[in-house]
């Protein structure tokens, strides 16, 4: 399922559980069937009742899920601790390379791997008023390659996050907001949605990559987005693309 198909299905979904099941289904097709969504610094108004804060929704092996919550691993989980310091999607296997993990943080990752959460990756999600959430994906397979899937999973995470916000705050979700992008901005963003770089878009449209960056940044500003993928998600939800 591509981003546009996911968006169409998400727009017809009115419950967090159904939306999360949609995300899990899409991630499973990518080889990453273990998924968790958490809110790190504010109380989420919508939450699956069986999971305590900071988790909003989880699909993990039952034994690991039970151990994680009973032992309050979220207080030492390096994904929870490090997400606010990282601006881009990151692989769990590379956390130790970029961060000086403490012994208890390494232990959580090792135990998660033994429980069946292998080769995980997480997507930091930054919202208004300093709000931070995270979507994590992991595979049950030893040969899974999250680096190869990181772009698609990143897009799915942002789309899920936006749709979750719509369900949680239906009166303040900005769906009626009108955004007018120029034809060139739309062209550039359509190719961004296809995963093209500025250099590739420039070659396709016959303009310089600096010009592409100019139009993309203008579109991001109009859409109130902090990243290209977030801009694509917002544009799709507003039917701009």
UniProtKB/TrEMBL annotation:
PANTHER family from the UniProt entry: DNA-BINDING TRANSCRIPTIONAL ACTIVATOR DEVR_DOSR
Organism: Bradyrhizobium niftali
Transcription in keyword set: yes
Lineage, broadest ranks: Bacteria, Pseudomonadati, Pseudomonadota, Alphaproteobacteria, Hyphomicrobiales
Annotated GO biological process: regulation of DNA-templated transcription
Start and end residues of each HTH luxR-type domain: 174-239
Keywords, comma-separated and alphabetical: DNA-binding, Transcription, Transcription regulation
Stretches of the chain forming a coiled coil according to its record: none
Classification via Gene3D superfamilies: Transcription factor LuxR-like, autoinducer-binding domain, Winged helix-like DNA-binding domain superfamily/Winged helix DNA-binding domain
One MF annotation (Gene Ontology) recorded for this entry: DNA binding
InterPro entries reported for this sequence: Sig_transdc_resp-reg_C-effctor, TF_LuxR_autoind-bd_dom, TF_LuxR_autoind-bd_dom_sf, Tscrpt_reg_LuxR_C, WH-like_DNA-bd_sf
Name of the protein described by the UniProt record: LuxR family transcriptional regulator
PROSITE patterns in the cross-refs: HTH_LUXR_1, HTH_LUXR_2
Keyword Transcription regulation: yes
């Amino acid at each position: 399922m591509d981003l546009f198909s996911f968006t169409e299905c998400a727009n017809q979904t009115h419950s967090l559980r159904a939306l999360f099941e949609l995300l899990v289904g899409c991630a499973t097709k990518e080889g990453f069937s273990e998924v968790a969504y958490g809110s790190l610094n504010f109380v989420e108004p919508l939450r699956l009742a069986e999971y305590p804060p900071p988790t909003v929704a989880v699909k993990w092996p039952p034994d690991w899920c039970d151990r994680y919550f009973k032992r309050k691993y979220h207080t030492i989980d390096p994904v929870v601790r490090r997400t606010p310091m990282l601006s881009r999607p990151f692989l769990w296997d590379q956390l130790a390379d970029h961060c000086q993990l403490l012994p208890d943080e390494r232990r959580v990752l090792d135990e998660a791997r033994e429980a069946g959460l292998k080769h995980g990756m997480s997507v930091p999600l930054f919202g208004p008023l300093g709000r931070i959430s995270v979507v994590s994906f992991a595979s049950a397979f030893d040969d899974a390659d999250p680096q190869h899937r990181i772009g698609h999973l990143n897009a799915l995470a942002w789309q899920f996050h936006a749709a979750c916000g719509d369900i949680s705050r239906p009166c303040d979700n900005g769906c009626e907001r009108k955004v007018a992008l120029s034809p060139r901005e739309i062209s550039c963003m359509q190719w961004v949605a296809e995963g093209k770089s500025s250099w590739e878009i420039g070659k396709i449209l016959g303009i310089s990559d600096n010009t592409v960056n100019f139009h993309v940044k203008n579109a991001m500003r109009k859409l109130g987005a902090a990243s290209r993928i977030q801009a694509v998600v917002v544009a799709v939800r507003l039917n701009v693309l």
